[in-house]
Amino acid sequence: MAQSRELPGFLAWLDRASEWLGRSLSWLILAMMLVQFLIVVLRYAFSFNSIPMQESVMYMHATVFMLAAAWTLKHDGHVRVDIFYRAMTPKRKALVDLCGTLFLLLPVMVFVILTSMGYVSKSWRIFEGSPDSGGIPGVFLLKTLIPLFAGLMILQALVEASRHFLVLTGRMDPTDNAHDHAEERL
């Protein structure tokens, strides 16, 4: 059976969308760093404090953390204790990753969505704002990141599960599944 180097149509599109979102969100890190620098300069040089600016750093951090998690999954960047995994063959790694995705990641993300919906919908009903006077009136938007995070993780998990399945069945080159870890090249 011929081995492919690419994912099938819609899965490849989802994979590219995850890559685009992750790269786009990386610019938010620069903005967050600049705003934090400005907060420090204004506070210590001019004795000026801004609650909306401080909260905006939290909003940006939460957005990057929650929405770029699927990109991190795509690049196999999550923490892994790989005492045995490192020495496995590519097909064995694909089997372990497929089982982890199907039996751990997907059920947990479905649980996150189901348990967060009431919490998020209550926040939307009252358009929950900052508890601090003069803060950003968008806590309901911040809480919406929780089910968005889980939804994006589910989509990327389906892509990864398909990729692992294709490797296991010999329809995808296992080297395409190998992720480049800098710490492994040391």
UniProtKB/TrEMBL annotation:
Pfam families: DctQ. InterPro entries: DctQ (IPR055348), TRAP_DctQ (IPR007387). One of its GO terms (molecular function) is transmembrane transporter activity. It is a multi-pass membrane protein. Residues 32-165 form the Tripartite ATP-independent periplasmic transporters DctQ component domain. The chain crosses the membrane at residues 25-45, 57-73, 94-120, 140-159. It comes from the Bacteria. Its main location: membrane. Part of the tripartite ATP-independent periplasmic (TRAP) transport system. PANTHER family: 2,3-DIKETO-L-GULONATE TRAP TRANSPORTER SMALL PERMEASE PROTEIN YIAM, SLL1102 PROTEIN. This is TRAP transporter small permease protein. It comes from Halomonas fontilapidosi.
